[in-house]
From TrEMBL:
Protein name (Swiss-Prot/TrEMBL): G protein-activated inward rectifier potassium channel 1
MF terms in GO: G-protein activated inward rectifier potassium channel activity
Pfam families: IRK, IRK_C
Start and end residues of each stretch annotated as Disordered: 17-36, 455-497
Taxonomic lineage of the native organism: Eukaryota, Metazoa, Chordata, Craniata, Vertebrata
KW Transmembrane (keyword) present: yes
Family: Belongs to the inward rectifier-type potassium channel (TC 1.A.2.1) family. KCNJ3 subfamily.
UniProt entry tagged with the keyword Transmembrane helix: yes
Catalytic reaction(s) noted: K(+)(in) = K(+)(out)
Domain Inward rectifier potassium channel C-terminal: 189-359
Amino acid sequence: MSALRRKFGDDYQVVTTSSSGSGFHQQQAAAAAPRRKRQRFVDKNGRCNVQHGNLGSETSRYLSDLFTTLVDLKWRWNLFIFILTYTVAWLFMASMWWLIAYMRGDLNKAHDDNYTPCVANVYNFPSAFLFFIETEATIGYGYRYITDKCPEGIILFLFQSILGSIVDAFLIGCMFIKMSQPKKRAETLMFSEHAVISMRDGKLTLMFRVGNLRNSHMVSAQIRCKLLKSRQTPEGEFLPLDQLELDVGFSTGADQLFLVSPLTICHVIDAKSPFYDLSQRSMQTEQFEIVVILEGIVETTGMTCQARTSYTEDEVLWGHRFFPVISLEEGFFKVDYSQFHATFEVPTPPYSVKEQEEMLLMSSPLIAPAVSNSKERNNSIECLDGLDDISTKIPSKLQKMTGREDFPKKLLRMSSTTSEKAYSFGDLPMKLQRISSVPGNSEEKLVSKTTKMMSDPMSQSVADLPPKLQKLSGGGGGRMEGKLPPKLRKMNSDRFT
């Protein structure tokens, strides 16, 4: 038996396979496998679940930015480094003062009134340590002091002052920055426990809620959303935790928040959204994580604050809406934070936006005329192609006698255009249809133009006759043939044929 474990970010299952290949045992093992908790990329409190490993020689980069490294450490390590640094510095400087007193022999002559030591009343190491503390902390009890007979003591005193200032600036500055970090300010910025999907303004919308518990405002507050989802490219490359941007009003400025009261952030699901083909049924099998990032400047300190949270697929409620939390009281607006996370169900179509658009296109009445127009055009083109084939089969003598080989083809094209116009009139608005139905429009002009073209050869042939024959022809075509002599009748018939 061999166990194949499939794990990536989310839950995983263990599937046992054997050489005998029993499918029933595989299904049983998969069903009995425990479903573990969803592994998040960003926790609800904003902490990122990322650990950096196998850095190798890159760890030296942390020492190059020692101040930021100390600030990023946890409080227990900061306090340990703070106490350790001061203790080592004090012991080192106390040892230097004791060493000067020992080399000068002040320890043996400390009680001699006629001897002037480097530091008065320093007899041993504890007294040297007390002298350093009194000097460094500027306590100055007045019992221990440095004399002018010790140049090496003066130099050590200057070095002590410079080193003490550097240590104070580094450690106290690190602790001050650590205490004034705006991370705790993010604790008073709230996000709703769930995100919801429902209709708003006739569009399917993903929504979640943010709030500020403090009276101090967040200056220039801005919100961003990222969709983390694994995918595979057409080239076969697997991209774990691929980041996609969710538009929450960047183009309209809706991402710039005036965060005085709780606000509902909206992402409209359209053709540009990554959730374009997300439906209520497909959401049960999808695995994604929505990371929300809220940034702003703390009004009291002027420092930039960032609050983060995330929503997994099981924290997105389909067909829900948030309860209203703002009510008007006497002279002010009241925010009820007890309903901040509460939602209620609303009628919402279970289909994705893509499926809704496809169903709307299939049910649209404008599709039938378009389809019929395309069929009519295809039929007219096939008829014209058939006439071309027939005209090629007619003997050359008959083609010469007709004189116009393309005449039937032109008539069919004219008829096809008129039929297309008839179908296109149905697609026009009512006003344009009324205008097109007025007599004397393009269709009647087209018919009169064709009749005129047909009568032009006859009128031209009559105009070519002698004046006497024109007078005979003025009574009509049928009378003219009856009054002409046989020779002229024969000549006229030959002329017209």
